UniProtKB/TrEMBL annotation:
The lineage of its organism: Bacteria, Bacillati, Actinomycetota, Actinomycetes, Micrococcales. This is D-inositol 3-phosphate glycosyltransferase. The keyword Metal-binding does not apply. Residues 15-180 form the Glycosyltransferase subfamily 4-like N-terminal domain. Keywords: Glycosyltransferase, Transferase.
Length: 379
């Protein structure tokens, strides 16, 4: 099958959409498909022009423009996408959309006009942007186009369903995960550098949407309710709020409880998870939560808010503790640190039963979506 992905964001950027699209393209190429990516992300900062290269077995066309701020957008993206599609002659075009992905959104009409089977996947929580997309639909009626609409979770699918309504189905195409890569040997408490404490970890961007500062408030409240040395927290990551987080730890006397090592490599994360017990995912507007699933695949219990996309794939008391609010997150950490058998039971379950986000399953679901998209262009 000839597959073309269209996305504003791609490697070398390392956000959620760009890494997931890259992984999907690599997996599809590994399965024997001919895969092309059209993106508006330059190969390096300041690069511009239309270039073609390869990353492993994937052909990557980059439409890089000189844009103030260096944002990965191109004002003539639809024109270039049309030309590249004529050359690639794909069997299906898979477009990847966030809240602000203007080049991909503008290129959707180009794909539809070319009569190509199209799948559009929403990767982000729309929030207030839903009203803007609904208003645009009233003008151009994009929801009536022959496109298979999809999203990475029920949370992200909900606003799309409200706009599309009965005119079209919205599929849920989950992100994929290399489960075997995250199966790490466990170092038991007492044999760790952190001592016998229940070790809570996270890998995240220190930005408001990820809610790291509220998580630190949760940790402070939980640490006050458990015996000294019963709880240790390591939050890996970087971002605009890292300095503020470090000030919070210093000002509240949490230096013996919380470690903020900055950004960690994949290898460093696996070493961290090997000596950890709990993965904390405090964000509410989390579309899918691949980092939490990586933690679960490593055998960690997950603590998260019940409203997030992360929670859709978890069961309270079985593989995770789900909380309706931050007070509930505090209670969850206290329970895991003090309630006999609870943490060990969840950890044992997660080490024995892997998440259902394997690439083999995801690729089957995506190919089914492609087949459904092909039927829409023949109606």
């Amino acid at each position: 099958m000839r597959i073309t992905h269209v996305t504003d964001c791609y490697l070398p950027l390392l956000g959620g959409i760009e890494t997931q699209v890259a992984r999907l393209a690599e997996q599809q190429a590994g399965a024997g498909h001919h895969v092309t990516v059209i993106c508006t992300t330059p190969e390096r900062p300041g690069a511009h022009g239309v270039t073609t290269g390869r990353i492993e077995d994937v052909t990557v066309h980059r439409l890089a423009a000189r844009v103030p701020g260096g944002y990965p957008v191109h004002p003539r993206a639809p024109h270039h996408v049309a030309r590249l599609l004529r050359g690639a002659r794909p069997d299906v075009v898979h477009l990847h959309m966030g809240v602000l992905t203007p080049s991909t959104q503008a290129s959707l009409r180009t794909v539809v006009r070319a009569g190509l089977p199209a799948v559009l996947t929403v990767h982000s929580v729309w929030g207030g942007a839903e009203k803007a997309f609904a208003a645009l639909d009233r003008v151009v009626r994009w929801s009536r186009w022959p496109v298979l609409w999809s999203a990475v979770s029920e949370l992200t699918a909900a606003p799309l369903r409200r706009i599309v309504g009965e005119r079209g189905d919205v599929a849920v195409l989950h992100n994929g995960l290399d489960l075997d890569a995250w199966r790490v040997p466990r170092t038991e408490r007492g044999d760790r550098m952190e001592g016998a404490a229940v070790h809570v970890v996270a890998a995240t961007r220190f930005a408001p949407r990820k809610r790291v500062l509220p998580l630190l408030e949760v940790v402070r409240a939980a640490a006050a309710r458990v015996p000294d040395g019963a709880l240790h927290v390591t939050l890996g990551g970087d971002g605009p709020q890292l300095a503020q987080a470090r000030r919070f730890v210093a000002e509240h006397g949490l230096a013996d409880v919380v470690a903020l090592p900055g950004r960690l490599t994949t290898t460093e994360l696996k070493r961290l998870y090997a000596r950890a017990d709990v993965f904390a995912a405090p964000a509410v507007e989390e579309a899918f939560g691949i980092a939490a699933l990586e933690g679960q695949a490593a055998g960690l219990a997950v603590v998260t808010r019940s409203q997030s996309g992360v929670a859709e794939r978890l069961t309270d008391g079985v593989d995770a503790l789900l909380a309706d609010d931050d007070a509930g997150l505090t209670e969850a950490l206290v329970r895991l640190a003090t309630e006999d058998g609870l943490l060990d039971r969840i950890v044992a379950r997660n080490r024995d039963v892997q998440p259902t986000a394997s690439w083999s399953t995801v690729l089957i679901d995506v190919e089914r979506a492609y087949a459904r998209a092909a039927t829409l262009t023949t109606r």
